[in-house]
Structure formats: C-alpha cells, structure tokens
Amino acid sequence: MTKNYSCFLGLLLFVFSCTSCSEDDSYVQIRPTQVSPVSLDLETVPYSKLSDYNFFEGDMSDLKPVYGVLPYKITSGLFIDYAKAQTFVWMPKGSKASYVNDHSVLDFPNGAVLITTHYFDNVLPEKTTKMIETRLLIKKEGEWVLVNYKWNDEQTEAIYTTKGSFVPVKIEDNNEVKAVNYKIPSYNECFTCHNKYDKILPIGPKPQNINEDFSFKDGIKNQLQKWAEFGYLDSSSLPNDIVSVVDWADESQPLDLRVRSYLDINCAHCHSDKGYCEYTPMRFSFNKTEDFKNMGVGVQHSFELGQELSHIISPGKSDDSALLFRISSTLDEYKMPIIGRNLQHKEGVQLIEQWINSLEDTKN
Known about the structure:
This is Repeat protein (TIGR03806 family). The chain is α+β, with helices and mostly antiparallel strands. 20% of the residues lie in helices and 22% in strands. It has three domains: 1-31; 50-237, no CATH class; 255-358, no CATH class.
C-alpha cells in the first residue's frame, strides 16, 4: 500500500514538473482560458452606473480596458468642439461581427457593445484631463440601444442620463485658450444622428474607417486583422482590398480625399438615404463623393440662409458656397452639423475653403 502511494505521489510530482516548465522547454504549458470580466445582462441594461459593466480596471477614468474590451480608432475623427475620444468594442464570448461592404457598419452580433468616451486634455487651470461622457451602443434583439453616461466632478463614476446638459471647460490647445460649453446630447438628439428610418445605427465602425494599424498591447496590427484574430470578426467575410478613408488632418494625402473623409464622418450619417437630411441633394458618404456633384459642387442652392448664395459649392468661390457658410456658422439656425458642436472647427473650415478655391469653375 505504501509502495503504491509513493508511486502515485511520484507521478503527481512528474506531471507538476511538466506543467511548470518555461515556454522555452519542450513541454506544453497549461494555462487557464481567459474570460472577460465584463458584466452585461441584456435583460437589465442600461445599468445606472458605468462601473456596473466592468469595462475598465483600476481607476476608471484611466480607461484601462479589461480583457475582452478592445480599443480601436476611427481613421478620420468626428469633430465635437475639440473633445478627444477613446473608443472600444466588446462582444460576448463566441460571437463575432461580419463584413457587409466597405462603407457600411459591420454586422454586429447581439450583445455587442461599442464604447466611446469623450474627454478633454489640458483643462485649465491645472492642465488636467477631464472625462465628460461615455456613450454606449448595445446590440439587443437585433437592434441597437443608445445609452449615455455623464461623468461626475470627482472623475470616479459616470451616471446614466437621457437628458441633455452643458459642461463648461477651458482648455489650452496649440498655445491658445479655448472656452468650450460642451453639450451632452439628450436621447432624442442622439437618436437624430443615429436614426435610419426609426432604426438606430452606429456611425463609426465601418471597414473603411478602421482599416488601419493600431498599437495594441501585443504590438502594432491592422485593426480588422486584430479583431479577426481575437475572434470579434469573421475573417472569411473580409475582402482582400478595402477602399478606405484617409485622416483628413494628414496633409500628405490628396486634398480631395481629405475633404471627402472629413465630410463622410461629420455629415454623411444625416445626408444619406434614410438619414435625417435625406431631403437635401447632398450625399456625403465616402463611396458617393467620388462624384463631386454629390457634395454639391455646381449644384444651385435653394435654401434660405439670410444671404444670397448661388450654389451649395461654387467652384473656385468659397465665399459663394452655402456649404462653407454653414460649417462656419455657430448660429443654431444655420450651422451644420446641427447637433454636436457649438464652436467653429477652424481647421475643418480651412480645409473645405482651400478645396473649394482649388476647384475650377465648371460654369454649371
């Protein structure tokens, strides 16, 4: 009996020594399968607090994602009064998104969550970072649910809200002090931009907008490839080539591609079929604007703006172009986009103005 027990104990020690070998040894190392600690019950969302989802570890305002919450970046970012954004995606274990086409949002599974936090750096007087809001889009029973959380002054928590509110901040940006009265949108305002014939759709996560390299924890990888490797994207559905936008701020890119990319992320969700502004002739989706007429080039202007402007875009004449007037204005009755900004985006205005003035007058 003692001999048999000794043999059994020896066998256990041998197995333990095998499983404790370093990665350089020839034995296969046994590791537990990682499980995402995210808490998501589709029957009870939205939760009252952002922390209830457990998307982040440590100090929540550091936005350090837990396992399973992948950061990603939109190539050409949306302008919201100079706020910065960090975006993440999470999906339930075993589920994945699939490709539809280059310019459409990926087909996400039920339970998928898109996480966007807007914040400011260099907030005066101490040049600190201030979290403002975290927006969630949750896929539930085949439809997206809009959920918004406002960060508290202590920067320790964000609380669920459906009401609009303003958060005043002063920031230092390129040695210039900017006073921002940041608008957290109400539910109805969120719905206006995300509405496609009474169905909510995300704006950013289209293959054309995320087909670029990103610095992940394990190295720099193409984002679509990383999603596929992690199990969040069906790689068999991806084409070899994707027609993608460019970073509108990248001056090494052609001017027209920068403008088309800028208008796509800032304007296309409303100026599209089934969008809030579908009644207008403009179609600003990147796949539509290779034809400049879809941006209004040479198209006569027919809306009352309080001044005479002959065309939506008058080639070579930015001061006679309604589009430039509207993206320059900060008046509610004129400004475009109508939701999402209170300040003029000086860099965006300069980009559009430069492009319009570079166009030849086609006499249309």
